[in-house]
Each structure stands twice: as structure tokens, then as C-alpha cells.
Amino acid sequence: MDVQGKVAIVTGGASGIGEALAHELAAQGARVVVGDLDEVGALDTAGAVRAAGGEAAGLRADAADVVDIEGLITLATREFGPVDIYVANAGIIGKTGLGTESDWDVILDVNLRAHVRAARLLVPHWQSRGSGHFVSVASAAGLLTQLGAAGYAVSKHAAVGFAEWLAITYGDDGIGVSCVCPLGVDTPLLHAVRSTDDPDAQLGASSIEHSAGVISAADVARVTVDAVRAGRFMVLPHPELLEMYRHKGGDYDRWISGMRRYQRTLRAR
Predict the structure, then answer these.
(1) Listed residue (29, 36, 57) closest to 225, CA to CA
(2) 20 to 30 A from 215, CA-CA: which of 17, 182, 238, 264?
(3) What is the Cα–Cα distance from 205 to 190, expressed in whole angstroms?
(4) How many CA atoms lie within 13 A of 212 on its CB side?
(5) What is the phi/psi pair of residue 115, to 5°?
(6) pLDDT tens-digit readout, 160-216
(7) Cβ-proximal residues to 214 (8 Å cutoff; 6+ apart), any chain
């Protein structure tokens, strides 16, 4: 999809990868609606995009709430036109360990059902138009796993699976899908995990930081928008992740043993 002149919605756009994606999309000519629970942050991102010469609007929105997703779509349509690109970026790390029933409801709502709800609203319109692009910002945890946090690992696996299903089911209708799976990214989410006293969360942060280099959100945004333009599904901002994923698929038992060993090493630090 040629991003120039297209209308894009970015959830979780007040900071981190979402903020960087809003700027990158606008820099390449898209008109952007920024959504976030942090209303001030969403408006600030939109304002910064406009100050840089782009077109943008911001709105307080819960990415997992159908009414709020509808609000984002309505704002985008009113200000700029029909939505062409939806970036399901908002995500949370959730509770560590096995979590409670309510913990699982929260993380599945944000990291998975938000994507499903947005797709339900947009895909029929994209089918009728013969074009549209859904961007799922998942994580390397969706291809490998996340030490210390079952909810994050499982919900990101589910996000990857949903993106795959969308791409297969609607690709012949002209709908593109890109699934973004970075390792460590310098974002407020990583900073929050680093600073916690929870040993499982600290384990997770260590596993992220030691698996590969921590890159900037702007790096992720650049390769993501390039993938949208190229119609590419899998987006790996850390190229080394591909080899890790191949090792996992090549010998699952060996990979699990290796991850257990890696976990022991990190806990002994």
C-alpha cells in the first residue's frame, strides 16, 4: 500500500512505538488519528505531528473498547476520510507468573481482543473497497516466549495467530496484514519493567535486554511502514530473531531446554 494520502489510526500512540509510528506514517504522507488512554499524550503526539508538517488528530480511546474504536474510526472519517490503515499497537505487559482470572481477562482484552474488535469493524468496509491494511504490533514473545509472564507470552502468541488468520482469510480481498515482532525496544513499557521490584518482571526485562540489542521505537516504525508499503506480513526489527525462531521450530525440546538454562542463568545474576 502506498502510504501517501492514506488515512491511518494508531492506538497506543501517546508514547513508544505508537508515537513513533504516528510520526513515521505522517512523514510518509499519511493522515493520522492517534488514540490512547492518555488523552494528553494522544493530543501531544498529534500536535507534534502537525508541528512537523503532517496531518493528525488525537483522541482519548481505550483500544479494547468497541465504542472507543468506533470513535477513532468516526473521527478519522470526519477529519480525513475512510480508514485505510489500522495499527493495533496498544499493549500491556500484564501481571507476572500465572496471574488470576481477572489478570487474564485484562491482558487478553488489550493484547488480543482489541485487534479482533477493530477488525470486525473495519474488514467489511475494506472488503467492499478492495483495499485496507491491518498492522498488528505483537512482539518477539509471540514467536518465542516471555520469561516471567505467562499472560504476555500467550496473548502475543494469540495476536500473531490472529494476524496470520486475517492475512490468509482476507488477502484475496485486497486486505494486507503486517505483524510486527520486535525484541527489546527503548519504550516506557520496557522502562517500567526494568524498574519494578517484582523478581519475575525483572527476569523478563533481563531476558529482553540480553537476547539482542535494545533498539529505538523510531527504528521499529521505519521497518513497519516499509513493510506496509511492500505488503509484507512478518516484520522483524531485530533480524537475528529469525534465526532464533528457526532454532525453536527445528528442535522444540532442545529449544525449551535452552530456554530453561537461559532462565537459570538470568536468575543467578
Answers:
(1) 29
(2) 264
(3) 7
(4) 17
(5) -70, -45
(6) 999 999 999 999 999 999 999 999 888 877 667 666 777 776 776 677 766 778 899
(7) 184, 185, 186, 190, 208
Q: Is 248 helix (H, G, I), strand (E, B) or coil?
A: helix
Residue 209: CB atoms within 10 A of its CB come to: 16
141: its cell numbers: 514473545
In the sheet where 132-137 sits, what is the strand order? 55-60, 31-36, 7-11, 85-88, 132-137, 175-180, 234-235
Closest by Cα among 122, 144, 139 to 131 = 122
The CA distance from 64 to 130, in Å, is 26
Contact between 60 and 85 under an 8 Å Cβ cutoff? The reply is: no
The whole model's pTM is what?
A: 0.94
Domains of the chain (ranges; CATH) run: 7-267 (3.40.50.720)
Cell of 51: 508541528
C-alpha cell read off for 165: 488468520
The overall average pLDDT reported for the chain is: 94
Grid cell for residue 5: 494520502
DSSP 176-204: EEEEE--S-EESHHHHHHHH---HHHHHH
Residues of the chain with pLDDT under 70: 190-191, 193-195, 201, 204-205, 209-210
Cα torsion 118, 119, 120, 122: sign: positive
Name residue, grid cell 525440546.
253
The count of residues in the chain is 269
- For residue 120, CA distances in Å to 22, 46, 61, 69, 166 come to 23, 26, 17, 11, 11
Asked if residues 26 and 32 have their Cβ atoms less than 8 Å apart, the reply is yes
Residue 81, all three cell numbers:
476520510
Tell me which residue has cell 490512547. 36
